[in-house]
Structure formats: C-alpha cells, structure tokens
C-alpha cells in the first residue's frame, strides 16, 4: 500500500485523486491532505479518509476549521506547513496539484525528503525545470506526469529508445474559441471563457486553455520532462480530446495514447506505475466516436502558445517571468479587472521588461516571480 500526500486536495485534480483512492482502497492510504482555503470541503475529506495530518495554507481558513474540528487528524496552518507536509516521513508519493508557482517549494521539499512525485502542477517545471529535474536525478526520485498530455507522452515512450524520438506531438482541444479571430475575442465574458468544450477543470486552467497559455506551459514542461529541444515539440489542435498526445519516431512511426476525457485515468496510471490496474472509469466507444480531426493552432490569435515558445527558447528566468505575469493577468480577468486579450498584453509587457538570469537558483526564481507579479499589477492600473 502506498501512503500519499495530496497537495491541493480540494481542487479538481485533488478531488479526482481521491476518487482513485476510493476505487482502490487496498492500494492507497491518504496520509496527508493539503488545501488552500476550502475548509469545509477539507473537513469532509478528513472525515472520510482519516489522514494523519491536514493542512490549510490560508490562516483564516485554518482558524475556522480549528475552532470546530475535534477529530484525531492533526491540523496545522500556514504556508510553511504546506512545505513541511510535502516531506511527511511516512508517505512514499506526493501528488502535487497546488495551483501555479505555489507548487514549486513543496515539490522541492518532497524530493529532498526522498518522495516520488505525481506531478499535476506544470508550473513547477515551467519556472524551474532545470533545477527540479536535476534535483530528481541527483536523488534518484521519479517524477511521474499527471497531466493527460504528458502522461500520454510518457506511455508512448515506454520501452523505446529515446534517441529514436523525432518529435513530441502535444494535442490541444482548441478551447471554447477555436476558429475565432482576435477581433471576435475583444469582449468575451468570463462565462464564455469558462465554457470549455471537453474538459471540466478549475477556473485558472480553463482560462489558460482558452488562451492556449496552458498548452504553452505544457510545451515548456515537455522540454524538461523528456529532455528534448523546442524544435522537437509540436502542438496540434484536436477538438475531440480523445488522442491525448503522440510521439513520432525517426522511422516515421507515430505512437498515440487515446482515452476518455477523464483525469482519473492519468492520475491512476501515475500512482500505480509501472503496473496497470483495473478501473470502472469510462472507455472510448469508437462506434459512437465517429471521427477524429486535427488542425494547426492559430498562434497569431491565441498568442499564449507563441509567447511560451519564446519564453522557453530564451530560457533562464524568462519562463518564470511569463508564468508570474500570466497568473496575475488571469486572476485580474476572473475578477473583472482585465479583458481576455489583456492577458496576452500583460504577459508581453512583462517579458519585454524582464531581466533574464541564467542558471537561477531557488532564491533567484522567487525574486523573478515576485518581480513579474509586481510589474504586472502596476500595468493593470493602466488598462
């Protein structure tokens, strides 16, 4: 039985990870649950799974739960407690599904403590890919991708000679605005943006999917997970979201991984690897499916993908700057403080103004992230 730490247990990936635990109570035990501020949902999860430790990073949420909880689970609160929870001694695997840059320090702490990582927080590798992957290699720890696209690539690469890889092909749904031009996106609403056609995700990642920033972040993540150049990574729009990604080899063979749009499938594979275990999750019905289609992404309209390629190729702290600016811009959009197309403008401004440092350590990455956020907040005042 594997003991799990679930970072972000009340979010989309966290709750679906708990579905996998429910499916296989003989395989997994939840040792630690970590959430941000959803104290009521965390309390229900504590009651069901009886972890040894539960953490709320938001101090007010922690105080609320502390006042009404009287069970056996140890409760702690605060940002530092999250980092310490990631290194919980009895756990073997840490599911990192915290949102955004906040996942970096807990992931590093988990690696230092000898844990394997089920990685759902792509920003960890976007902002610190070189640092994190070198640390995992040094310590002999596994980083198993949970994102459906990267889990697909991971499966297509099993048993193959990495030197024979010609191209990694990441699929993208195209989001709710596929086929539209920039002038049609000027006044799109929050409701329009959050109406993803195939996936049910949290608000931030759904906005990123609509802008194609999310696919850009996955491009940078792929570069570090699989040690390939950006010239070996291609994005193709696949509206049905059945082919999760593909690998093209030097002989012309293309291997693809297919499955339903259900994140529990890649979560389970990451947790049970190298084994495959039975599940009751949905299957693809090819009779009902009918057809699969593929298109070239419009990187002029959906500039998030183009900006991510530029940030990745620049390297150093530039992906960190891009990510920090995007997180602030998306938050502003969700609060009604910025338009959808302003997200691109804010990212561009930060990338143009940012000073790139190469081979950054954690301290420099934290500083770059802070600069990008502060700079972008100042730019918001001028919108």
Based on secondary structure, the structural category is alpha/beta
**Helix residue percentage:** 40-55%
Q: Give the overall shape.
A: globular
- CATH first level of the largest domain: Alpha Beta
Unreliable segments of 5+ consecutive residues: none
Oligomer: single chain
Number of helices: 16
**Helix-strand string:** EHEHEHEHEHEHEHEHHHEEEHHHHHH
Commentary on this structure:
With 383 residues, this protein is of the alpha/beta class. The protein contains 16 helices and eleven strands. The chain has three domains: 144 residues, 3-Layer(aba) Sandwich (Rossmann fold), CATH 3.40.50.720; 129 residues, no CATH class; 69 residues, RNA polymerase sigma factor, region 2, helix turn helix motif (Rna Polymerase Sigma Factor, Chain: A, Orthogonal Bundle). A seven-stranded parallel β-sheet has the order 4-3-2-1-5-6-7, sandwiched between helices. Helix 5 links the parallel strand 5 and strand 6. Helix 4 runs parallel beside helix 5 and helix 15 crosses helix 16. The model has no long low-confidence stretch (mean pLDDT 96).
């Amino acid at each position: 039985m594997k003991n799990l730490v679930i970072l972000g247990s009340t979010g989309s990936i966290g709750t679906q990870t708990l579905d996998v635990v429910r499916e296989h109570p003989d395989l997994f035990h939840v040792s630690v649950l970590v959430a941000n501020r959803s104290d009521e949902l965390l309390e229900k999860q504590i009651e069901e799974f009886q972890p040894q430790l539960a953490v709320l990073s938001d101090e007010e949420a922690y105080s609320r739960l502390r006042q009404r909880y009287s069970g056996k689970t140890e409760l702690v609160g605060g940002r530092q407690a999250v980092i310490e929870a990631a290194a919980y001694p009895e756990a073997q695997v840490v599911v990192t599904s915290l949102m955004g840059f906040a996942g970096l320090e807990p992931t590093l702490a988990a690696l230092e403590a000898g844990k394997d990582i089920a990685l759902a927080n792509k920003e960890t590798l976007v902002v610190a890919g070189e640092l994190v992957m070198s640390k995992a290699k040094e310590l002999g720890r596994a980083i198993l991708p949970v994102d459906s696209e990267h889990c697909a690539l991971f499966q297509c690469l099993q048993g193959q000679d990495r030197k024979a890889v010609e191209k990694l092909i990441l699929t993208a749904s195209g989001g709710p605005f596929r086929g539209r031009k920039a002038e049609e996106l000027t006044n799109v609403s929050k409701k329009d943006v959050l109406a993803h056609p195939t996936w049910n995700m949290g608000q931030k990642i759904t906005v990123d999917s609509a802008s194609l920033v999310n696919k850009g972040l996955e491009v940078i993540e792929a570069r570090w997970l699989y040690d390939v150049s950006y010239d070996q990574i291609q994005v193709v729009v696949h509206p049905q979201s059945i082919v999760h990604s593909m690998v093209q080899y030097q002989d012309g063979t293309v291997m693809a991984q297919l499955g339903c749009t259900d994140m529990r499938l890649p979560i389970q594979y990451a947790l049970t690897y190298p084994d495959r275990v039975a599940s009751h999750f949905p299957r693809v019905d090819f009779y009902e499916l009918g057809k699969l289609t593929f298109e070239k992404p419009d990187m002029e309209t959906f500039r998030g993908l183009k900006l991510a390629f530029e940030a990745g190729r620049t390297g150093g702290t530039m992906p960190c700057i891009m990510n920090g600016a995007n997180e602030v811009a998306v938050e502003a959009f969700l609060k009604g403080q910025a338009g959808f197309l302003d997200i691109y403008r804010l990212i561009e401004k930060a990338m143009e103004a940012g000073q790139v440092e190469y081979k950054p350590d954690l301290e420099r990455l934290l500083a770059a992230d802070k600069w990008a956020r502060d700079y972008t907040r100042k730019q918001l005042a001028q919108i």
